[in-house]
Design goal:
By secondary structure, the chain is mainly alpha-helical. 63% of the residues lie in helices and 3% in strands. It is built from 21 helices and 3 strands. A 3-stranded antiparallel β-sheet has the order 1-2-3. Helix 5 runs parallel beside helix 8 and helix 16 packs across helix 19. The radius of gyration is 24 Å and the shape is globular. The two termini are 47 Å apart.
Length: 501
Amino acid sequence: MPGSPLWGWLGPLIVTVFAGFLRFDRLGVPRAVVFDETYYAKDAYALLRFGVERKFAADADKLMLAGRTDIFAACGQDPYCGYVTHPPLGKWLIAVGEWLYGLTPFGWRFAAALVGTLSVLVLARVARRLTRSTLLGCLAGLLLALDGLHLVFSRSALLDVFLTFWVLAGFACLVVDRDRARARLADWYGTSSLAGEGPRLGLRPWRLAAGLCVGAALATKWSGLFFVVAFALLGLVWDAGARHAIGLRRPFRESLRLDWPLGLAWTVVSPLVVYVASFAGWFASAAGWGRNWAQATSNGWVFFVVDSVRSLVHYQSQVLGFHEGLDASHPYQSQPWTWPLLLRPVAFFYESPKGVCGAATCSQAVLGTGTPVIWYAGLLALVAALTWYAATRDWRAGSVLLIYAAGWLPWFYYALADHRTMYLFYALPMVPFMILAIVLACGLILGRVDASPARRALGASVIGAFALLALVDFWWLWPVLTAVPVPYDDWHSRMMFPSWI
């Protein structure tokens, strides 16, 4: 790894502090329950109190904003008292903030802001590892810090920022595992003949860490399953490619026998273990939805473990039925092929307060949209990455494209076959990999280390101009991303398309 190890950490940490300021500044504003916070902030508090989700009073949002915590409705004869359709891990993380700071807007948004900030650090470090450049690593972190969609979700108590963090962290662990495995093969290559088969690569703790992270993504939202498949495929292809690179005669056969059993255990089995473990509160409570279904439908005694697993499987089948049948129309819904163009963002919050902005008509808004300069540059960078991979088979371009596709293409099926209701923010897990594509393109623009000073200076100027343009675009959007009261005309001028209104 070239460059200074000190600056390899110090640079990303400086960018992370900047991102943290953007995410924590005025975090309690707006003092309202915005968009789907009405579900997750309350579910998180129920988990904190009871270990499972509960039903809420009809005016629970008003009660929370008034500082009260008696927000639960009586269950009556209902033994379960609360049906939810997302796994609990993300809500448990939201609950940590509520435990620390109370049932307040700052409290239920705290965990999202912290995880969103840490995402910037992880992206900066993994980009540095991919490019072997601290400068490009810091650029990646800066672009994520300046993305509007990531900022809005880092300042809201919704699940998608947690999903994004775990996917990104898992990818970072997988890249470290790739480096460690290839180093081990290189050491073996230097002291062994190639007449026999290659070595086993040990317990692969970083591969296990990747599996645990993607398992946490799955335990946050079911769409984490797309990335479980992508990570398993990526890790196994990398293993076979590494054996091929040192000249082993049967690299794919050896990889299948030596790498795949443990690789599949770490990237497929361990995520399922994490998913089941995330329901610990449900297992420990008699009030979880469907908790005793197997007992109720069986004749006689059923062993506790088998009974509990049957109940959990039945609950998951109900959730699957809900998601497959989710086709109700919504004013902010959008189709996945429109997401990269930012054609239909989600309005999280909008009010017209009087006398707070120095104009007769004011607007206070939180618009869930990306920073256009970054997203449209991302489109060009993804095309460049596809071309680059087709021409050179560069593993970095290929891995970025695969994970981006895993977060995007499955939604085409649900749009075309199931007509499912979807939103722009489903694209949030794709954003770090879009930015990695931008950074890889910037590496090509910057030029090789041994390029002429004039060539490097020109490339650096282009990259610097792009970063400055992204910063200006973000600054322009800042008021409508963070509920800053502005005159109505100022708000309207920031609506890029009529569909933003």
